[in-house]
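Design review, sub-item: ligand-bound model
Attendees: FS, YL, KQ
YL presented the inputs for the NDP complex:
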Amino acid sequence: MAVSDHVNLDQFMAGLKRRNPGETEFHQAVYEVASNVFDYIEDKEIYHAQQILRRIAEPDRIIIFRVCWEDDNGNVRVNRGYRVQNNNSIGPYKGGIRFHPSVNLSILKFLAFEQTFKNSLTGLPMGGGKGGADFNPRGKSDNEVMRFCQSFMTELHRHVGEDVDVPAGDIGVGAREIGYMFGQYKRLENRFVGVLTGKGMEFGGSPIRTEATGYGTVYFMHDMLAVKKDAIDGKTCLVSGSGNVATYAVEKINQLGGKVVTLSDSSGYIYDKDGIDDDKLAFIVDLKTVRRGRIEEAAKEFNCEFHADKRPWEVPCDLAFPCATQNEISTEEAKLLIKNGCMGVSEGANMPTEQDGIHAFTNAKILFAPSKAANAGGVAVSGLEMSQNSARITWKEQELQDLLRNIMQGIHDNCQEYGAEAGSDYVDYVKGANIAGFTKVADAMIAYGVV
Ligand code: NDP
Ligand code: 2IT
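KQ shared the predicted structure:
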């Protein structure tokens, strides 16, 4: 078949939308990859003939199940659980579990699709998956969360395993939830294996898994700036969110001499012009992970501004680190960031920038690290946790620090290789990440034939 006979990008997207009606986040994630990959494979017949992108955008399987549990008042509650096993061409399915009321199939399919490319970029043998439930942990007691996690795993355990599918944390799923789920898996299967990552250090967890995503996102910014012979030192930074990724991003920015002036949660953001130093950060970590309170309390404690129901992007800055959730930077906010002098964005959250917002960043040619590259440090250390579990050993913290640093540098360099613009020093990291992530998965799929 002549190359010109292949479907074009618009036809491809029309088909995807027809087969997946209403799943706007999934459409958005696929479009971002497809728009780069279509150009790249234009003259590579094998990828067309084998329908590679079409196959990656069709999950291997999706499991949907009822999760019943009893609240503290004895009421029966019903939630919906999911696991999207997107693609296992280069390793067992791997990706987090999200507990948030907004969870639906569109969000989990976008996350599992993204994860496939992200995991490929790490260079480790991991396929892509994602799961979760529309359960809202906010306001629930520890016992309620435990009963929910146990019920969730009572179904999920049939579908996962250390060589099959290895979930981890994401929004609403941290050390507490992983502990409850691991305990239930072990009880049901009577096997102590690395079926989840992000485990506690007492039961097979890896040093620096907790820190890895936030640290990695900042390393990626460091590496982009280094190409421009610049550094984070002295830069004013905006960080959104106040969970796992956000707080460890702040810790690393502080270590590298940057000044973080914002953090947020779903109720608004705090603006502290003096900077959120390590003491203030410790207060916020305790507030969010132990007391499970709202970010406004930190503004009272620090005597700084709180902006209810707003996002931090209106504050002038040098660098921005969106670390909360998808589509948290609108196109207008992206343009405002550029107008206010922002020179770099590194995405700690998954797909935090709206499609046209990404175009605004790339058109303005500011440094822009897309999530599948910038936040891959978390899953990379998860991959290293899997290796340690298989060997039944725990490596030293410094070894893992060095491995994370090297993996992030490797991802940066790989994106640079595929994303460098001919005739200029500009690097399109979006294109670089999409193509570098695609080729490894695609070539493995070709080796397997039509399966
Ligand atoms: P956490 O649950 O620890 O923290 C999430 C933070 O984001 C909270 O501050 C939360 O506020 C805020 N948030 C969540 N949903 C919304 C929303 N709809 N609107 C506004 N704010 C919101 O999650 P993580 O830090 O683990 O995850 C943050 C992002 O990073 C996600 O996009 C996740 O997919 C991504 N990620 C996480 C990795 C990890 O290793 N944990 C790895 C790679 C990416 P509130 O408390 O009010 O809900
Ligand atoms: O989005 C992500 O990369 C994660 N939530 C982490 C996945 C993992 O398996 O560590």
